Structures are given as structure tokens and as C-alpha cells.
């Protein structure tokens, strides 16, 4: 049951009162595994999946293959969440 809920973001458990933003904080998102400089082409080993809480939410894991090989527009600290705007 838990696995099916986590795979389908539209099904929010009742314990969270139907708030998708709270539920989203418990899901994993894409973060930098190490410090990365601006202009670096991102490799798979540069990224990891973390539960970041609702304050620092990154891209969903389903976008992993789309950002590998992209060039960074900004420098990233270790464990920084990744967003679309960070890539060319």
C-alpha cells in the first residue's frame, strides 16, 4: 500500500489532511552529491536522491535522466536541491 501511494502523487494519505505540499516534503528529490561549479556538465554520479523536507524541494526523481549531461548555470553546494532553472 505504501509503495503504491508513493508512486502516485495524486493519492495523498488522509493523515496529511489532503495537503500535497506537506506530502511532497516526505518524497525524495534530486540533490547534488558534492559541490559543483557553474559550467560543469552534470554526470549521474554527481546526483543523489534525498528527502529534503518541504523547505528545500528539488526535482522529482523521474527527471534524473533529463538533467544528466546538462550544463549548470549556477554553482551548487553539497546536497543542494536541483531545479529546472539551474540547467541550460
Key phrases:
88 residues, two-stranded antiparallel ribbon, 3 helices
Would you mind describing this structure in some detail?
- This protein has 88 residues and is of the alpha+beta class.
- The chain has helices spanning 2-7, 20-24, 64-67; strands spanning 28-32, 47-51.
- It has a two-stranded antiparallel sheet with strand order 1-2.
Element layout with pairings:
Elements: H1 2-7, H2 20-24, E1 28-32, E2 47-51, H3 64-67
Percentage of residues assigned to helices = 10-25%
Instruction: List segments where confidence is low: pLDDT < 50 over at least 5 consecutive residues.
Output: none
Largest sheet: 2 strands, antiparallel
Share of β-strand residues: 5-15%
Spatial extent as radius of gyration: 14 Å
Structural class: alpha+beta
Task: Give the total of beta strands.
Answer: 2
What gross morphology would you assign?
Answer: globular
DSSP summary: helix tally:
3
Q: What does the average pLDDT come to?
A: 79
End-to-end distance: 38 Å
Order of helices and strands: HHEEH
Strand order in the largest sheet: 1-2
